[in-house]
Write a structure and sequence with these properties.
- The structure is a homodimer of 300-residue chains.
- Chain A is mainly α.
- Chain A has one domain: Farnesyl Diphosphate Synthase.
- Chain A is 71% helix and 1% strand.
- The first copy, chain A, has a two-stranded antiparallel ribbon with strand order 1-2.
- In chain A, a hairpin with a 2-residue loop joins strand 1 and strand 2.
- In chain A, helix 2 crosses helix 6, helix 8 runs antiparallel to helix 9 and helix 10 packs antiparallel against helix 14.
- The two termini of chain A are 19 Å apart.
- The relative contact order of chain A is 0.11.
- The interface between A and B is large, with 55 and 55 residues.
- Chains A, B: Its cofactor is Mg(2+).
Amino acid sequence: MTDAPPLARAMAEAAAEIDQALDILLPAAEGPEAPLFAAMRYAVIGGGKRLRGFLVLEGARQFSVSRQAALRVAAAVEMVHAYSLVHDDLPAMDDDDLRRGKPTVHKAWDEATAILAGDALQSHAFTVLAEEATHPDPAVRVELVRCLSKAAGPRGMCGGQMIDMLAEQSGGQMDEMAVGRLQTLKTGKLIEFSAEAGAVLGKAPTPQRHALLAYGRDLGAAFQIADDLLDATASAEETGKATGKDAAAGKATLVSLLGLERARLQAERLVAQAKDHLDGFGERGDLLRMLADFTIERRS
Amino acid sequence: MTDAPPLARAMAEAAAEIDQALDILLPAAEGPEAPLFAAMRYAVIGGGKRLRGFLVLEGARQFSVSRQAALRVAAAVEMVHAYSLVHDDLPAMDDDDLRRGKPTVHKAWDEATAILAGDALQSHAFTVLAEEATHPDPAVRVELVRCLSKAAGPRGMCGGQMIDMLAEQSGGQMDEMAVGRLQTLKTGKLIEFSAEAGAVLGKAPTPQRHALLAYGRDLGAAFQIADDLLDATASAEETGKATGKDAAAGKATLVSLLGLERARLQAERLVAQAKDHLDGFGERGDLLRMLADFTIERRS
């Protein structure tokens, strides 16, 4: 791992640390509720790039927040993200059998366990944030709860998911603004929170908190376009998942609305803008800058 | 309503106030997410006895907490309770078409909307608790979040629901202790929180907070036995719902394990014990005492 580029190394290290934190924070798969606890662990431990958790850790590093505090918040965000994936994969929603190459929770257990595991992951994320170990100042903890619950709730992730479902049912005739709004809610708000959380933990001055939030907003938007571009252009072999799904589903994305070239330009503009928000952060912001670049360079 | 006994009048008034609070706290059913917001409102506004919300309001009254603060917490608890009912009613769980005489959310909309509405109700409950309007002191707000999320999470409501599902799948051979544990988790923890919340809001001394928690624990246990007794003895006409369901399902309850008479005695002992915990509360505790008596006297 020592020969890997700095961003890849930092992300791999962060992912390992986040998994350790999750392992400690989630109940052990014992006792009469064991299948619930096992399903929760399966859903969130050991998967994904940990983009959200990495953002929390890097945001926190700008303000010298303790690693333990940042890891708890990173774990909480990953719990919320994982719960949303477990519920999205259900037969009544996207009906997916595989996630990151493994059977989805409702395939590995059953639908009822998947619903409950998602529900319990959401509750547990707020317990983790609210506990004193996250930060000695209750005002910091409650602000984290307020921001994360808003990012996840009816005017955040859940609202975006609803709009997405309705668009698919109606045949997906959305314009650029509607697609942008959908994605801001569905995936953007949680990424914004992840970027902002370190500033909350570090009691950063408002302008710096806003800068991280704005960075998260642009990064999330660029990330989404990059995802759509990959879906439209990359092979399944490269991405490790089925591609061409959006076009096959007749789904409106910024790529289908703007065309490949304009979508790519827009993603590049967003990445540049994201980095501009970090102007006040000096060298400590380098990994966040690299992450922005990586967003549109990645092939999976 | 003026001729109704004091408890019935107080509960009806509380239910109306809680509905008003919910109406204000939930997003209006407008915009592209309208079906999500409408389903959330449908699930939680205008239904049930509001036992949990009433407990919050009465607990808060012991410590002269502002009605507005108490109503926000009551609304948050009812959102969590309603979300659990929406998910429990899903085809993969209890598969119920009716709830309180109305079509369940997945019948009135669809399964995906029901899953999302439940998810969003849970997030929104924590947003409501975390917002400044709930209490000027962030330590109070974050303590409410911590307690409610624990009561709802893997070691609370979700854990109890999991044990219940596994017991049904395995044929329900549980002993008295296992049934007690199941019910403590599945319904007891949220009722305990509801009773305790007023003391948190009122920054009550620990002994008084513990007294309310203990009252809630005994009340919840008595309430559950009374429910099982009603299921075993009352007619569907009296209760307004199907009865004899537990026996038909071969479900172990304290009534099936102890017999009618011993179960009734145990409920009475729990009610007496619940009231004993209120000894320090003077006349202001009278409605909570009446509520304990009502638990085993009710016919629906």
